[in-house]
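Homework help board

Subject: predicted structure for assignment chain

Our instructor gave us this sequence and asked us to write out the predicted structure in token form, then describe one feature. I got the tokens but I'm not sure how to describe them. Can anyone check?
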Amino acid sequence: MKRRQFGKLALGTGAAASLSSLMAAAGAGPALAQTRAPVKLWGASATLEAYHGFLFLGNPLGFYRDQGVQVEFGTAAGSAATLQLVATNQVQMGYIGMDVLIQARLRNPTLPATAVYLHDIGNIYEIVVPEESAIRTVADLAGKNIGVANLASGAIPSLRGTLAGAGLNPDSSVGLIPVGNGAAAAAALRAGRVQALSLFRAQHALIETLGFKFRYFTRDAPSAIIVANSNFLRDNADAATRVLRGIVMASAFAQAAPEATVREFWKLHGRPQGLSEEEALRRSVHVLSSTARLWKDHRDASKRWGAMDTATWDRMQDFLLQQRQIPNKIDSNSLFTTALLDEVNKVDLAPVLALAARSR
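My token output:
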């Protein structure tokens, strides 16, 4: 059999990037793609959890293999660390915050990293209060203490923006108290040291499993992307597309079968100790399902997987400028490409959802 040469993707600005070579490459069969070197895909968390299923499930469930690509999955301690690995091509693709890419490109305009897929269409940063609290609106937080993980937390810009949007002065209307995460944050809330928390979605969901029910105040904004090394992307558009299809498949499976996703995670990393299997499963499923509500809903055909546009990035830059997180804006079209998304969205989810149904 004659081996077909993979085309190169011509990277342009935003949606204007060329798809011609990608469409040609997509005709190559999975067996050919599997002969290529593994693509390294990294998450941005020092601690891997079941709610990262959209990244890791592709290997144990065979989604990446079915798409004809080998993927090596790993994690780094935060978005900045993951982006550094992507920019130096030690890792080819990574899951990071949108704001981190913007800030990095401002410091280094030639940084070879391009956003290829918007994953978290909801904001991971939010404010929560107990359901029984008298705090019914963001404005009701005036004079209250809000618990944050630490005073350098990535949640603080979003917190400040949410407060300002409700007419409060972020510098004087509330107190910010470092409370850590998990049980420590729950204890601070239970003891009344703080009246609200501003951590991130997975932590808030975890604390709910410790006996709280929360009212959520969330700023309407996306928050996290899949970014690719620009040089890798130029020469390997087909491989990047196949990885993204695997992420779509894993996202749909995790939403449709959260219990099975947790059990797949346990097979890889072991079940939490000190809890019964039933309780550990209940907690992990709650955190996963709560986090997955930030993703595109696999049942919603009105939205495309990974969709973003210039306005998406302009709004994020406007917010960062308002919060003095960046000194000026750059051309949003230089930050992303949507050239892969037509092919990514051709993925067939019927077998994935059938597998999820059998797994429940």
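Reply (TA_rk): Your tokens look well-formed. For the description, you could write something like this. The two ends are 42 Å apart (CA to CA). That's the kind of observation they're looking for.
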